[in-house]
Amino acid sequence: MLDTTLRDGAQAAGVCFSRKQRVTLARALTAAGVAIIEAGIPASGRAAAGDISAVADAVSPARVLAWCRALERDLDAAAGTAAGHVHLSLPVSEIHLAAWGHDRAWALRTLAPLVAAARQRFATVGVGAQDASRADPAFLREFAVAARAAGADRLRLADTAGVWTPAAAAATVADLAPCAPPLEIHAHNDLGLATAVTLAAAAAGAPWADVTINGLGERAGNAPLEEVAVAWRIAHAGEILTAGATGDGTGGDTAGGTGGSDFDYAALTALSALAARFSRRHVPPSKPIVGDAVFTHASGVHCAGQLRDRRAYEPFPPELVGRAAPAFEIGAATGAAAIATALSRPGVPFPPARARALLAPVRALARRLRRPLTPRELRKVAATESASL
Fold for domain 2-279? Predict the structure, then answer.
């Protein structure tokens, strides 16, 4: 994977990472196994270029990429940093070409000499097809052929406005893969489809996936690192994980990295918390993979099923992403099995008959409070009911 939290994520409204925070995030991403970190835009100024170099010094230039417009001065600014890789972004849709005062001939004319100059300075050169999802398919194919002829190492298909469907992205990848450099999918989440688009493109043959921690990014954000990594392993590769599984897995992978055996899945929860703190953006409790509530079970049927087999209502165990299994929530929808589990002590199971007798008062109190009961409140209900016997 290519993580762009420090570039696209940092463009989210209200987000401003300090240099120290950037280095901390980069080290955590590298430790987790992310292949390349897009660290920023050197042409933004001396401070931005210094941030990129600080990140490269901390994790190795071989892990760091600088983002550039299709301008020689941007390339010069990137060459002044310690980044080992560079990305050159060119508009390819009629909307974006017109917005920047260019045409198709300019894009093709600019591409080859700029890539040639970049290859003299960087280990790899990526080319970005900006707004590829709204580009004319025939011109996008012509641009892809030109990028390969120029010697680009990757071609980023940017769903700049977040309008691609998974099927459309997959069809484009399948069409371009035979004539393009290795493809890289860069999905935005305006329609809530960034993860699905990324997975579909990867399955169709795009070996590189662009992601950000927590999906941080401009507007509705980008494809979330944690969702893409785990969904590729579980949903695409079809791996069924049992309780106790850890993050050293052997899930399926594409050549460029959407997870796989070298990725530390157990680092995802800590990565999410780190990015949330630095960006000052709260992670919703129901956020897939890393939300606080996604492994919490409340209904009687679900809790009973989980006690029989944790796979019953979980696609993967919380341990995979560095979480501990939470206690059952005892509330208005709770069942006797959950109550018995909550009131049991090591080596002393709570009697099922007594748990069933507690159902009515426990549910009544939870409805009155309009929230789950705390362990202390549950024990008090149990003690009151016992005293009345």
Answer: TIM Barrel (3.20.20)
